[in-house]
Amino acid sequence: MKKNKKDKKIKIDDISKDIIAALKKEIDSDAATGAYGTFLGYEEEHTKYFYKLSAVFDRGSYKVKITYTPNVLLFSNIIDLEYEINGENFLIYDIFNLFDISDFEQYYFSDLSTEAETGEAVRSLLDVAVKYDYDVKKAAQEENFERLKQNRDTDIKNGFNDGMTDEEIESEVKDCIEMFGVVPNHPVCSYALDTTDSAKLLKKLEKQDKKGKIETLYEKRLLEYLRGGNKFENKNAENKKAFEKTFKKQSFLADSVCFVCGMVFAVVVALIARSIVFSGYELLTYSSFVGNITIHLPNEGFFGIALGMIMFAGAFVKLFGKTLLSKLVKGDETALQRYEAEKNSENGKKIKPAENIIVIVVLLVIGIAGITFTATNNFGFGENGVKFTSSESFIPETVSYDDLEIYSLKYFISDEENKTEYKNGYAVSNGKGGFYELGEVAPGGETEKRLLSVAEKYGKKIKTVNIAEDIKK
User: Fold this and answer.
1) In whole angstroms, what separates CA 390 from the centre of its chain?
2) Is the N end or the C end of the chain the one with fewer CB atoms within 10 Å?
3) By the 8 A CB rule, do 235 and 110 touch?
């Protein structure tokens, strides 16, 4: 039976499967002790863009959840501690905010890759749940719960524009959870996320406070905590920076190699295609606009090949970047997931596979167009005639010397309103109205000699026109 597209779910990678297995192994072992409450089992959210596993413990007036969310944009994964109180979900930081508890330890773990790390993270969070059991039960009491809920909702709302409706905020919160694995008021969304230096963090928070941009109670309390001379340890940031340093070098190298290969590929294909199209013809030598360099390519063709190089470079990065990176990182799934996530997201939104394919196709089509233009937009002398792509065609045509018409040009059009005078300009025509503008030709040079020789041998009169567009049938 064919699966409905709506039933498609995000793929769980091998690293995440290992983490899930390790988490369940530890949870089952800890649950058997009965020290953490009554184990209610596992809850799973699995959609097209999001996966989350929660191990749920009942502690009477509230539930504790140890959650796991694969999250490659920030880290490889996040194991977190959540609470369900009166049917509402909260973070432990919401409890700290409510009672102004000066605990700024990071009670979430990220970038885990081994069973031992996972087990240690789970045990640590369960121990924290026991440690703050009294405070959570107190927060669940009627006289405190409404303030707990209001604080949380205000923190979330402050992170969005004032004019947004509740429905719009709810949608943004959902997107945040799907992309980053956490709610917007989580510390990973705060100024403390990447900071490893307490002094720098204090300076950053002071600066934002002066601008009125301290939006959450967590950050406000953290600012006061640091003002009191306390230190903030950020182990997650330290681990992340070490990963980022290596990842950026490797991903940049992979992208650069693919980019250069794409450019070289475009040039090689263009030159091969041109040699096939103009096989048996001697191509003109042009003066390049970059100096006194002479090339067998008109300036228009240079822009065509430049376009092809850029488009193919972009396509090569998208097509082969991950494959090359896998060779550089030697199977580091975390780096590969991060790379793929970055390439398949824009402005915090996931790019659908179909959209990615469309981008690649567009890049290739435009690149091929540029290469084709370069390969065909040229002029060559042959034994019995010339070959060029006329103004009325995109396909090179052969014109015999008997049918060829030669023109001297006075001006070329530099833009819609201005004409520039040629010193020694030429154009040719197929005798049917289609022309090819040779442009400025060196007086007494090889090209002019060939044109004059053809005119003399075949009895051609060189006509003078103002601009190439004046050539008529």
Assistant:
1) 41
2) N
3) no
